């Protein structure tokens, strides 16, 4: 019997940290994508946290791409469309009509090798606290992810200022030749 995949709604950065080490995703090059917008928010469609057909305005979102021979699949644990999805389909479903979205809310992707993300990421969960210290969303039951030197804020800032757009992420993650 397999162990259930760790998952907590609204904690994509930690969900993907666990998934990046899982045998469930199969063989291939594993790449973590942190996506945000130029102003720190990104419009994503097909998200379970929003009504069907309505964009969810995330401050960031984290997903896992697995690039293998012949295809690249995307694991978005918060997608209404299931996972994994072929990368082109995920891009189309999550960012439809991107040319009609205000530039500030268009996606900027930070591409991070999964082994680096697993090694370097450290979470203090402070981004999910209100000014009075209450949780905005229930935290995961598992222990904090610690030991790395790169915070969520660091990755978000990198995506905002140095991240790539839709076309470039699709090109960089194109399937490996057979």
Short description:
The protein contains 5 helices and 7 strands, in the order αββββββαβααα. It has 178 residues and is α+β, with helices and mostly antiparallel strands. It has one domain: C8orf32 fold (Roll).
What attributes does this structure have?
7 strands; C8orf32 fold; 178 residues; globular; 5-stranded antiparallel beta sheet; 23% helix; two-stranded antiparallel ribbon; single chain; alpha+beta; 5 helices
Give your account of this protein's structure.
- Helix content is 23%, strand content 20%.
- The protein is an alpha+beta fold and 178 residues long.
- Strand 4 and strand 5 form a beta hairpin.
- The longest helix is centred in the last third of the chain and has 11 residues, at 152-162.
- The radius of gyration is 16 Å and the shape is globular.
Give helix and strand order, one letter per element, not per position.
HEEEEEEHEHHH
Residue stretches low in confidence (pLDDT < 50, at least 5 long) are: none
Residue share in β-strands: 15-25%
Structural class: alpha+beta
CATH class: Alpha Beta
Q: Note the main sheet.
A: 5 strands, antiparallel
The outline comes out as globular
- End-to-end separation: 33 Å
Give the CATH architecture.
Roll
CATH homologous superfamily descriptor: Protein N-terminal glutamine amidohydrolase, alpha beta roll
Query: Could you report the average pLDDT, rounded to the nearest whole number?
Result: 94
> Could you please say which CATH topology applies here?
C8orf32 fold
- Report the helical percentage: 10-25%
Number of strands: 7
How many distinct domains?
1
What Rg do the Cα atoms give?
Answer: 16 Å
Strand order of the largest sheet: 6-5-4-1-7
Helix tally equals 5
